[in-house]
Design brief:
The complex is a heterodimer of chains A (about 250) and B (about 250). Chain A is about 80% helix and about 0% strand. Chain A has a single domain (about 35-240), classed as MetI-like fold. Chain A is mostly helical. Chain B has about 250 residues and is an alpha/beta fold. Chain B has a domain at about 35-80 and about 155-250: P-loop containing nucleotide triphosphate hydrolases (Rossmann fold), CATH 3.40.50. Chain B contains 9 helices and 9 strands. Chain B has helices spanning about 10-15, 55-65, 95-100, 100-105, 110-120, 140-150, 170-185, 195-200, 235-245, and strands spanning about 20-25, 30-40, 45-50, 70-75, 80, 155-160, 190-195, 205-210, 215-220. A 6-stranded mixed beta sheet of chain B has the order 5-6-7-3-8-9, with helices on both faces. In chain B, helix 8 crosses helix 9. Classes of the chains: A mainly alpha (about 250), B alpha/beta (about 250). The interface of A and B includes residues 149 and 244 of A.
Chain lengths: ~250, ~250
Amino acid sequence: MKRVGLPLALLALLLGVWELYVDLGGADPVILPPPHDVLKSLVDDRGLLWSNFLVSAREVVLGIVLAVMVALLLAIAIHFSATLRRAAYPLLIASQTIPFPMLAPLLVLWLGFGIAPKLVVIAIVSFFPIVVTTFAALEAVDRDLLKLMRTFDASRGRTFWHVELPSALPGVFTGTKVAVVVAVIGAVFAELAGANSGLGYLFQQAEANLLIPRAYAAVVILSLFAIVLFALLTIAEHRVLPWAYQSRGDVAQ
Amino acid sequence: MIEAPVKEPRDLLERDTVTLEVVSRKYGELAALAGVSLRVRAQETVAVVGPSGCGKTTLLELICGLQRPDCGCVTAAPAALMPQRDLLLPWLGALDNAALALRARGVSREQARATAQPWLARFGLDGFEHTRPAALSGGMRQRVSFLRTLLAGKPVLALDEPFAALDAITRAEMQSWLAHVLEREPRTVVLVTHDVEEAVILADRVVVFSPRPGRVLADIAVPLPRPRRRVDPAVVELRERALHALGVPS
């Protein structure tokens, strides 16, 4: 209870301060709407927000799936090939220095206004943590376990399938949890660069028309979406990999 | 005309042996083994005892073909390792962990399970087929680990301090258990341990190693009937001889 209760209490306090600040004349409510105006927009504009949310959610989910697939292939490839690792790892890290907000419009220019540039931007911003954690997990497999498999005459492929790949799954989940958070940000950048639907697009339109509560409502929804994705992945992780969360104890005698 | 190569008839005694001739192994400047000669006959259990860091693990890895000697010669029948830590896969139940050695060489899951299943019962693990290592006791984990090594189907078993991590009571139980299993399922066994009593209880010969670099200090035959009891005066006497060879004052 404390785990959820305390952050919620702090959040309520911060919202209260914001509400008071605007109500007491600290800011023009048209420029900085008080929280209850944002809440009102969430209710009144729910149809509009929902339909645009579905567009953004589809981009994020597909983008993440693409990122996971690319990241897994890359992590496995650099795990197997030392040459590829030496060639690709510095470039992988360098890829994170790309200023994505500037890259997004350039990709839209090339790939058009459809979903393709969004998926590419989301995948580019979110594949990196998955590659790093998956690769680290593959490399962290106990050397003695690999020796053991050699004395069992296991081929490289069977050792990978039976030992290394399952060992790496917690790493895949860790990376993906980090990735979903940045994926939502990536989707917004991609939509701001050129789109005709989605919460990023709706945000842009609302802001241009000085419908500031609606712009805040879009921010709230995207933020909640990232939190929900993170929570869903955490639940899935505990379901799929229960062994990764058990500590060794002498239960049976 | 091509003649088929003549196959030499090799009897069991020739086949399932381990021979090391003046073997040395260094890691950089650090010498692990210096001129070790050792011969293990088929279906013989040889215990290697010595202080920590006397190259015992190196010896087993040489026997298993995981390392090559710097000089000297290692001739060994195919050997399967039982590591010091159980190294069970945390996501698999006891049955699948035991069957891993079979899966490693491409046996199907159904076939591997069918082969391992009767063994699990014989090892007192029935009812725990699908229990993951985290929920097994230390003794059970070592039994699963040993079964996995046994199911690798190699004539030689290389056991690396198999019971070192267990508490005293469980260790004593596991020693009697291993003696019993080896009686029914004879293999050529090289058992590395730092427990001299364990060596005398289990082995046909106790080979005493020096501190690093490891050399053979003594080779003590244990011509005692089984099962052996640790309070038996003959067991006590051989234990004291081995300890004496290790330089422990009695």
